[in-house]
Design goal:
Helix content: over 70%
Number of strands: 0
Largest sheet: none
Order of helices and strands: HHHHHHHHHHH
CATH superfamily: MFS general substrate transporter like domains
Radius of gyration: 22 Å
Distance between the termini: 54 Å
Shape: elongated
Strand content: under 5%
Number of helices: 11
Number of domains: 1
């Protein structure tokens, strides 16, 4: 049942999109952030009748999210962008590592790893955002979630291995379309979670978590993979990748030494 792959790709992008708005909400108390700017505006309009600390307290009570980080190492724009960057870098690294592994152990098991890792990631993001009040822990949670968000390239590679190029082409294109659909629908579903002060933004992770669980069940039950694509077990594949990386490093050093 190839539909299970499309469903997994759909929920992967849907869930990832729903993580993005949390950064600006949690970083709103950073330097030059919304709370600071609102307080400065209140002071300006009060014409000397309101001090900045008083205005900051009022702005925080009126506009602030109660779970916004109290201690943020950098300004608002940079702190928000670093959270998004952690998600993107994690995704890029995960795609490279698991893409290579899928060539050795097969795509089905790697897609299952993606969904299981994503499910854990949504729970990690929820706990870090709701209870930790730690910028660095939340940054790690975003990187984890990104690291396991690689169903698109692995799915496309699966179709390329199973079918001839002509037959695989529409499937590969459809995966891209499904990803766009998931991202768009994710933005729509997210809207009620970020209204007002964004108090409910973390509950959106349960949508991604549910999608991951559904994808795991469908992939396990319905996705059939040709046996020849499973060339070896995980341990042997990891050792092979590590050995390949070591040989490349040694070859690079040898070339430098020769120069």
């Amino acid at each position: 049942m190839l539909a299970s792959i499309f469903i997994a790709a759909f929920f992967d992008t849907l869930g990832t999109v729903m993580l993005i708005p949390s950064g600006p909400i949690l970083c709103q108390r950073a330097e030059n952030g919304p709370i600071e700017n609102a307080a400065k505006g209140m002071v300006a309009m009060a014409d000397g009748n309101l001090t900045y600390p008083q205005a900051y307290t009022l702005a925080l009570a009126e506009y602030g999210n109660p779970r916004a980080f109290e201690s943020i190492p950098v300004g608002f724009s940079l702190s928000s962008n670093l959270l998004l960057l952690a998600l993107q870098v994690g995704s890029a690294v995960g795609a490279v590592i698991f893409g290579r592994l899928s060539d050795l152990v097969g795509s089905k098991s790697i897609l299952l790893v993606s969904m299981v890792g994503s499910a854990i990631g949504y729970a990690f993001v929820f706990v870090a955002g709701m209870y930790s009040n730690s910028y660095w822990l939340y940054l790690l949670a975003m990187a984890w979630s990104g690291f396991f968000s690689f169903t698109i390239p692995v799915s496309q590679a699966f179709f390329g291995k199973v079918f001839s190029p002509k037959v695989a082409e529409p499937y590969i294109g459809s995966i891209g379309a499904i990803a766009i659909l998931g991202a768009g629908l994710g933005a729509v579903i997210l809207a009620p979670f970020v209204t007002g002060r964004g108090d409910s933004v973390f509950y959106a992770t349960f949508v991604g978590l549910a999608g991951s669980v559904v994808s795991i069940v469908l992939l396990m039950r319905f996705l059939d993979e040709p046996a020849h694509l499973r060339k070896m077990g995980y341990l042997r594949a990891l050792l092979k990748l590590l050995g390949r990386g070591k040989r490349k490093s040694e070859a690079g050093e040898g070339r430098k030494g020769g120069v």
